[in-house]
Amino acid sequence: MRAFHSPSPAAHPLPRARPARRPRFPLALLLVVLGAFATAPSIRAQNVEWGRLPESLRLFPRDASDSCAVTVEGTVLGGDFDSVSVTVLRDDIPSLRLAEPLIYEGVRAPFSFSLPLRAELAEYDLLVHLDTVLVAERESLLCGDVLLINGQSNAVAYDYGGVVTNRSEWVRSFGTTEADSSACEADTLWGLAQAHERYAPLAVGVWGLRLGEKIATRFGVPVCLLNGAVGSTFIQQHKRKSPPLERLSTIYGRLFYRARKAGLDGAARAMLWYQGEANTSSPAPTYAGHFAELHAAWKEDYPALERIYVFQIRPGCGEDHQGLLREVLRRLPEAHEDVVALSTAGLPGHDGCHFDSCGYGRMAEWASLSVGRDLYGSTDTAGARPPNPIEAHFADSNRDAILVRFDQPIVWPLDTLGAPLEDFFYLNDSSVWVIGGAVTEDSAVLRLDLAGTTGADSLTYLPDCCYEGSTTSYKGPWIRNGRGIGAFSFHKVRMRGPLSTGVSAGERSIPPALHLEAAPNPFNASITIRADIPAAGPVRLTAFDALGRRAAVLFDGEAGPEPFVREWSPADLPSGVYFIRLESGGRSAIRKTILLK
After folding, report:
1. DSSP per-residue string spanning 482-512
2. What's the average model confidence in pLDDT over 440-460?
């Protein structure tokens, strides 16, 4: 790439990374194309009074025709030159040259060019000549889309592990995410987005960078990302304050200042919002009101916004009202037709509050499916959205089973050693609990069987934050769709009476979940395993150790429908935790046991 003079290190501590250049266009041929310009004395920029001249590494927002119009204009000072020209190079190959004569009024001759760029994975350079003298050069310009990111630390999402040090020539950013007002005001440079530093120039976060890369490679459109997130912040701190909008002492004002300074405030297509953990310390219903105010401000100040994506926070860091806050986030699309909720349930690499680069990378993959569907007309839409519950009903008048209908087919995890999923559904009746679950033939209906009849009227999926009351963040199991995207958690969803429509007779006649008991527990020499097998068929009974390794196959054959009893005497196994798993008819049940010798 040609030499590009960036500010001194003292003025800008993080150099603007530049894309690696392709093989250069042969210089001799370039001179022929440009008119075989002869060597001329150098001329400095002060010979031209520039009106509009794009910065190197800038991205221009594309229009409806997938192109951008780049303006170069100024006034030549003095009367020594006859013409001005602009040459456009696409990937170092000349693609356009425009020229016009200079008409002086006294010693001043104005000029103006409008240069078309295509929204594509190609870099454009501009060369401005007075006669044969090069007076300005701008490099690596792109035409593409603009996305905004905001929220708290999981929107900052920098690489805590120091793994993501790469950059992409197709993902740009502008300015700095530093909270210092003077630093934000002073930094008006473009560059390649980065994820390895936070609160720094060009920082967009790991999932932001990955999302930009996926959009560029899948849809052939470069992307500019502006990230305005600040960790450990409440939604109230993100709201728009009194004018001026660019108030640099506020989170809202700093992001808007950068967007307007870069000429992008009228072109941003989407806002991605990951925030909420800080607001779990107080009851969540007020959150919806704060979000409505923020939503209205975004729509006014970023008029091109087509979608606002809201991440439902994951069980983890936060305080007592996590479940309620997650429910508010899940239901925001009901109040705002341009809001799309995204799930984080089941993402890997979670440390109790944040994600590693793998987790953030998977988050970007999931988000890219929804963004691709909404903004780029992607046809890869099956399972692009997280499964969302539509309704919950008692299966019949006995009120001892619940049917939960989702908006798409779901997968119930069969192998959930040590943490059967039925343990993470909660009724507002503590005397009755869920003893088993299975997906019905409909594939979108989940049946939950209860330990008895209940008067409960609400159902919750997933704990507020932790596993079995410990301080360890919940790690699963999860309901997912066929694509592996975790279903939304839900909190105190109202249950109605028996489902009268929309469920087939086959679904109503599904046999109850498998019932499995093991006693005594803890045990010493042997343990008795009892189960009810609803229908005759293949049955498999297996024991696993605490690491999920198979310890013994206790039964593998035909059985039922009758009481099923087996003895297990693990004389050759050491003391420890073991899990007994029963599989029959596409269902499974697991019980934790403890062997003490």
Report:
1. TT-PBPPPEEEEEEESS--SSS-HHHHTPPP
2. 91
